[in-house]
Design goal:
MASE7, transferase, alpha+beta, five-stranded mixed sheet, diguanylate cyclase, binds guanosine-5'-triphosphate, transmembrane helix
Length: 365
C-alpha cells in the first residue's frame, strides 16, 4: 500500500531538476489528498446526510482528478497543475451552486487555489498563477452573494453548519501545511547556497573564504580562552611537473585524493581547507607545538603514501611540504599565523621539500 502511494507521488519526477521534482511530488500528493477528502465527503453524503445522488455525482467529479496524475506521469506538469486547479474550482462551483446552497460553506475552499498555486507554480508561471487566483476570488464572491434557489439536496441548518466548519478547518490546515512546506523549501535552498559558497568545488573541502571566516572566529575564541592552537600550511611539491607530465585531469585527481587524505588525518575538530591551487591549511584547536609536529608528520606521510595510476598505466607519486605555526608568543591573528607558517613552509621547500618545518623551531634555534 505504501509502495503504491510512493510510486503515485513520484509520478513524472524522473530526470527532472530538484525544484520541479519537489513541486511535482507536492502536486501528486495534493491530488491524492483531494481524492481522499472527496471520497470521505461522498461517504458522508451517502450515509450521514442521506444524499446518495449527490454522493454519486461527487464520485464522478472526483474521478476527474486522476487526469492530473496522468498529466504528471506524461511530464506535462503545467497541464497537470492547471487541470487540477480548474477542476477543483468547477467541483466547488457544482457543490456550492448545484448540489447545495452557499450556506454549506463550500465556496470557502476557493481560498485553497491561490495558496496551492503559490506553492506549486514556478516563478516564471506568474500569469497562469495570477489568472487562477483571480478566477478563484471571483467565484468566491459570486458564490458568497448568490443563493441557489433549487439545490439538489437541502441540508438542515446543523448539516450546513457542520459542512462550513469542515471547510474552515481544511482551509486552516492547508494554510499551515503550505507555510510549513514553504519555509522548509526556503531553508533547504538557503542551506544549499551556504554549502555551495563555503565548499571547494573540485575537492569538496572547505574553501578559502570559509577558512578565513571560520578561522578568524575560532582564533578569536581560543585567544580569549587563552588556549593553544596550531596552524599547518601544506603545499604540494613540484605539482606543476605532475600537470605538465600527466595532464591537468590527473593533477585534479591528485588534489582530490590529497584532500581525502587530509580529512582523514588528525583530530576531528580540525578546520581543514583548500586555500589555493595546490595549497591547503589546517587549524588544530587545543594543540601545542609538540602535538602539531606529530600530526604534521602524519599528514606528510599520508601524502607521500599516495600513488595514483593514470589511464595510461603510469604511477604518479606526490609529496607535500608543511610549515607549522602556533599562538605561543602572543595572541597572534590568523594573518600573522599564516605569515609565520609560510616562512616555515618556505624553509621546508628550501631544505629539499617533503618535510615538516615549524616556525617555533626556526625562532628557537
Ligand atoms: N590540476 C590542477 N592544477 C592546478 C590547480 N590549481 C593550480 N594548479 C597548478 O599548480 C601548479 C603550481 O605550480 P608551482 O606554484 O610552480 O608549484 P610547484 O610546481 O608545486 O612547485 P613547488 O611548490 O616549488 O614545489 C601550477 O602548475 C598550477 O597550474 C587545479 O585546480 N588543478
Amino acid at each position: 500500500m505504501f509502495d503504491l502511494f510512493s510510486s503515485i507521488v513520484a509520478l513524472g519526477t524522473k530526470n527532472e531538476h530538484s525544484s520541479a521534482v519537489q513541486k511535482t511530488r507536492m502536486l501528486n500528493m495534493l491530488v491524492l489528498l483531494t481524492i481522499l477528502i472527496a471520497i470521505v465527503y461522498s461517504i458522508s453524503y451517502m450515509y450521514v446526510l442521506n444524499a446518495p445522488l449527490v454522493a454519486l455525482y461527487n464520485l464522478v467529479l472526483t474521478s476527474g482528478y486522476f487526469l492530473s496524475l496522468f498529466f504528471s506521469h506524461q511530464h506535462h506538469h503545467k497541464a497537470a497543475k492547471t487541470w487540477y486547479f480548474s477542476l477543483i474550482m468547477l467541483h466547488l462551483f457544482i457543490c456550492g451552486n448545484l448540489f447545495f446552497t452557499q450556506e454549506s460553506g463550500f465556496h470557502f475552499y476557493y481560498f485553497l487555489v491561490p495558496i496551492g498555486a503559490l506553492l506549486l507554480f514556478e516563478l516564471k508561471e506568474k500569469k497562469l498563477k495570477t489568472t487562477l487566483s483571480l478566477v478563484a476570488a471571483s467565484l468566491f464572491l459570486y458564490c458568497e452573494n448568490t443563493l441557489n434557489e433549487n439545490p439538489l439536496h437541502v441540508f438542515s441548518e446543523a448539516a450546513n453548519h457542520l459542512l462550513s466548519q469542515s471547510a474552515f478547518l481544511v482551509d486552516m490546515f492547508a494554510i499551515i501545511l503550505a507555510l510549513t512546506l514553504f519555509s522548509k523549501q526556503i531553508e533547504r535552498h538557503e542551506l544549499g547556497l551556504i554549502k555551495q559558497a563555503s565548499t571547494d568545488m573540485l575537492t569538496g573541502l572547505n574553501n578559502r573564504r570559509f577558512f578565513f571566516q571560520e578561522g578568524e572566529k575560532l582564533l578569536t575564541k581560543k585567544n580569549k580562552e587563552n588556549k593553544s592552537y596550531s596552524l599547518l600550511l601544506i603545499d604540494l611539491d613540484y605539482f606543476k611537473d605532475i600537470n605538465d607530465k600527466y595532464g591537468h585531469a590527473v593533477g585534479d585527481e591528485c588534489l582530490i585524493i590529497v584532500s581525502d587524505a587530509l580529512q582523514n588525518v588528525g583530530p576531528e575538530n580540525k578546520l581543514c581547507a583548500r586555500i589555493g591551487g595546490e595549497e591547503f591549511a589546517i587549524i588544530l584547536p587545543r594543540c601545542g607545538p609538540k602535538s602539531a609536529e606529530v600530526i604534521a608528520e602524519h599528514v606528510r606521510s599520508a601524502i607521500e603514501k599516495i600513488t595514483l595510476t593514470t589511464s595510461q598505466g603510469d604511477s604518479v607519486e606526490c609529496s607535500g611540504s608543511i610549515g607549522i605555526s602556533h599562538n605561543e608568543v602572543k595572541n597572534e591573528t590568523l594573518k600573522e599565523l599564516l605569515e609565520q607558517a609560510d616562512i616555515a613552509l618556505y624553509k621546508a621547500k628550501d631544505n629539499g621539500r617533503n618535510q615538516v618545518v615549524s616556525y617555533h623551531q626556526l625562532t628557537h634555534s
